[in-house]
Design a protein that fits this description.
Blueprint: H1 4-29, H2 42-55, H3 58-70, H4 79-102, H5 112-132, H6 139-154
C-alpha cells in the first residue's frame, strides 16, 4: 500500500500533467499556427486572447497558481513544470518583442528580457488578485487596459 506522502506526490505530478496539457491546448487554441513565430505586438494580441480564455476557466488558473506556489521550493513534482512554463512564457514574449524591434514596429531601445518578465508578472499577479476577489478585479478589463497602454509605450514612432 502506498504511503500518504507518495500518493500526494503522485497526485501533484498528475495535476502538473493536467496543466501541461492545458498549455499544449492553449498553443493550438490561440488562432496562431505556431505561437513561437509571433512578431512584435502580435504577442500582446495573443495574451489578450489568453486572458479571455483564462477568465472562462478559473479552476485551471487556480490550479496553476497553487502548484507554482507549492513547487517554489524545488523539491516538488510540479517544480520542473513550473520552471518550464514560466521560462517558455518569458521566451515567447521576449522573442516576439525582439522580432518587433527587427521589423521596426517596436522601439529599438527596449530591454526585451526585462519587459517579457514584467508582462508575465503582470498577468500572473493580476490573475492572483482576480482569483482572490473576482467580484472586485476585472481580469480582462485590467489586462486589456495594460496591454493597450503598453502598446503605446513600446511602439516605434514613425
Amino acid at each position: 500500500m502506498a504511503k500518504p506522502a507518495s500518493r500526494r506526490r503522485g497526485a501533484q505530478a498528475l495535476l502538473a500533467a493536467v496543466l501541461a496539457e492545458r498549455d499544449l491546448r492553449d498553443r493550438y487554441g490561440m488562432g496562431v499556427d505556431d505561437i513561437f513565430t509571433l512578431r512584435g505586438l502580435q504577442v500582446l494580441d495573443m495574451l489578450d486572447r489568453l486572458v479571455v480564455r483564462n477568465a472562462e476557466r478559473s479552476g485551471l488558473v487556480q490550479l496553476s497558481h497553487v502548484l507554482a506556489a507549492e513547487s517554489a521550493g524545488g523539491d516538488h513534482p510540479a517544480a520542473e513544470y513550473s520552471r518550464r512554463h514560466f521560462t517558455e512564457a518569458r521566451t515567447l514574449v521576449r522573442t516576439a518583442l525582439e522580432a518587433g524591434i527587427a521589423d521596426g514596429e517596436l522601439r529599438g531601445d527596449l530591454d526585451c528580457g526585462l519587459l517579457a518578465t514584467q508582462i508575465v508578472a503582470v498577468m500572473e499577479g493580476l490573475e492572483n488578485q482576480w482569483l482572490a476577489d473576482p467580484g472586485q478585479v476585472d481580469l480582462m478589463g485590467v489586462f486589456h487596459a495594460y496591454t493597450r497602454d503598453l502598446r503605446e509605450r513600446i511602439r516605434a514612432t514613425p
